[in-house]
Amino acid sequence: MHQAARRLILLGSTGSIGASTVEVLRHLRAHGVDFQVTGLAAGSNADLLTEQARSLGVRELALANGSPAPPPGARLRTGPDAALQLIRDVARPGDLVVAAMVGFAGLASALEAIERGCHVALANKETLVAAGSLVMQAAARQGVQLFPIDSEHSALAQCIRSGSLSEVDRVVITASGGPFRTWDAQRTAAATVDEALNHPTWRMGRKITIDSATLMNKALEIIEAHWLFGLPAERIEAIVHPQSIVHGFAEFRDGSVMAQLSPPDMKLPIQMALTWPHRHAGVARRLDWRTLSNLQFEPVDHERFPAVRLAQQVIQRGGSAGATLNAANEVAVHAFLAGAIPFGRIAEIVQDAMLELPDRPILTLSDAQAADQAARAFAGHRAAAHPQRT
Fold first, then answer.
1. DSSP bridge partners of 240
2. How far apart are CA 53 and CA 129, in angstroms?
3. One CATH from 1.10.3720.10, 1.10.1740.10, 3.60.15.10, 3.40.50.300 for 153-265+286-385
4. Cβ atoms of 218 and 238 closer than 8 Å
5. What local confidence, expressed as pLDDT, does residue 3 receive?
6. Which of 39, 74, 120, 145 sits at 20 to 30 Å (Cα–Cα) from 99?
7. What is the largest distance, in Å, between two alpha-carbon atoms of the chain?
8. How far is CA 66 from the centre of its chain?
9. Which residues of the chain fall short of a pLDDT of 50?
């Protein structure tokens, strides 16, 4: 499917996933698999954006925050809608857009790319969580594909290839358990920011690391799996696997189970998304079988980590439930990182939003934005009403 010098636009180029994507692109280019990178969008790191543009030969740029002078020969869009404008100016049908912007802000540009006939390599979880029905309908209408960049969904896609989706009884995604897997509930609820950011196996951005500590990251991935593979909530499960070596299972109706194993390195799922369904010489770390003397698996403790059950509720309720969960979580995580609420309040605020805000249909981007704004206002009020005790 992928050919040499295929056009590619990278949204979120200076973040963790974006920087790894640039590394993968350089590796593939050195091995004869070339992409013509036609656009880069970043949040606020103008210096790194400029360096990436220079090294990749990109002239069309976007920066959400700040307004520096553009690099020589480049056109720089600035402001909160800069990435969206970049897609409108540059994207063509058949392009591959890597959607790696963090948070709900990435939805509009990813949806615009789909509407313009672009295939999307999706690292932005919020796009499907907040507006899955809208996004999947647009993808079907435009005849474009979504390639998952999450390690878990990449694993499931690879496992399912060994049969067909109709033969799959259930899929299972794995969670490391985060830094608090063995902590009791009281100690976890009082965890500090530094403790929550100390992930045992992955090195990621701050927001996704906190989501991993609450297992909200796994909740978002369950909702994503529902939309990507068309499976109901009861056929999607999560299990704790502290080593982060097995990323997903697909159990087929004959009882056979396929699993995908690799070290915790995002460059592998990124490369799979860029080159699917083909495989090329990899840049990611290789598995050392001599170290695999012990692989642990254990059930999720739903009392300490209620996020997984909330994900199942989102799938069952539909409508704006996903947007509510996502927005309330983003606000609560930000409040925790700012020292405004204790760690234990994150899940409580999300649960309260799910309980008290009504579900409404998501038929347009404006519907998703309205649900997002309502949940942000609710969560912001709850966070302010229960400040961190000192």
1. 175, 298
2. 31
3. 1.10.1740.10
4. yes
5. 47
6. 74
7. 61
8. 25
9. 1-4, 389-390
